[in-house]
Amino acid sequence: MAAACPDAPSDSSARVVPVGDDRRRSLVFRAGEKLEARITPDGAEAFRFWAAIRGLGDELDVRITLGEGPEAPSWHRHLATHERWVEGEIPIPAGAPPQLLLTIETTAPRSRDRDARLALAAPRLVSAPTATPGEASNIVLYMIDTLRADHTPMYGYTRNTMPRLAEMTRDAVVFDRAYSTAARTRPATASALTGLYPSSHHARLGRGLEPEVETLAETLRENGWSTLAYVANGNVFAPGFAFEQGFDQFQTVRGARRDNHARTEEINELMLPMVRRYADEPFFLYVHAIDPHSPYDPPSGFAGRFRDPEYDGPVTVGKTSSRVLDRIATTEADAEYVRALYDEDILYQDAMFAELIDTLEDMGVLDRTLVVVVADHGDEFMEHGGWEHGNRLFEEQIRVPFVVKLPGGDGATARRVGAPVSLADVPPTLLGLYGINAPARTQGRDLSRAILDPTTEPPSDTLYVEEATNVPGGDLRTLLDGPWKLIRRATSIEDDPATVYQLFDLSKDPGETTDQSSHERERAQEMRLELLRRSHALSTPLSDGTAPAALDERTRRQLQALGYVGE
To answer: What range defines the domain where residue 264 resides?
Structure first.
């Protein structure tokens, strides 16, 4: 077990410190400063932390002592800026007194280093693992960017695009009708990390998370988990969007391909060694892999697995963004070739996910790890006249996988849940599985009983999705009520003469091709009123002084390469 140090400096004095693309929650000390604090080990076996230099100096002598007298265990290091983050550990001997004196001393070896600062990240007390198989100590939330549910074998797809995840679902709970809260990455991901809907967390249209919003990482950190994030989408990792709230480590993974996007293998290269270092303490790991986001570019070993080798049309790997496909892809053969490239990217992503699962198994901790796999949204392939995502709320853009693998894995909990659920349900559900109350503002539902008890279904309710874009008619809302789905497109949340409503019966028309609003007038009116009621009930005003976030130039280039020109 790991816990933040009691009696040490308050979390209120912590700040997020960036070292390159690696941001960590840290206490910061000036050169020459000395701190003394009493901590209660409570049976812990070690005191762990990460250290780095910030400020104008290049070097710093650091000594951290746990106890009193010349024999007290300590950690001494001459830190230099080129070392980035350095891991430290001080063992706590058996029979240690109920309180220990923690001393942190910093010394500038040269006068020019007097403005150096020590950043001490994630200081924590670590005990031997107490969980046994069947009891969770670790949590993995694995977000696969742009993965639509119906392109995976778990949801009936004919191509075996995700063999490893499909294998895992034999011992997992699969939600058959899981929906995003939006058709864009930032608002959808914010919902999965806060339990709030976009009109409440406001992480959209150039804005990020407000500091008042409590994230899943913050709640878990307060309850003893170390919190780690590895993120490859600039809509989440840009510092101005504040998704790092609550994470001990928040690692930006930019990738080496022309400021485009990082392949998931680049995430694994950074992440897997770090995961191994947390083998004996509970961690919450959030992974945001950007494959299979466009441009679809499956790497060697996966390229060619699904596409037609005889295809000789205009679509190529380098021409799969929506702004290009709008001009060149005109036939069904073109669309099928794009779908095949997308599926090959999914197959690659599944292999990278398998590397993480294999690592957890090699570490001996998979049996005490909760694994949750979701997606932020899907992609369209001309089903409704367009490509990619962010401009419609049809099923292909908002229907996503939602898989929960409980620790143990003997198959006893494997089941399918047919009731519709939302990405906003993820935080209260994960907390509910550990008996932790969700923050008071949470709008998602706790599905933990439906996961743990096969006789329980999620509470019956209508499901709501929303999307606000910066294009005319871009205020999109949808309401699902059983098989019925109402989609609203308007210029604002209020109705005006330009507001358009469409009603579909998904049980008879899963492709959403025939609008039933003129034939089901009473149903359409009832759902319209409920949709407007939900829209108002879930909206909260922006905090005073909230302004759009500023992006660094490299992140801006990455977002443009991914097709987020309007952002």
So the answer is: 138-300+368-458
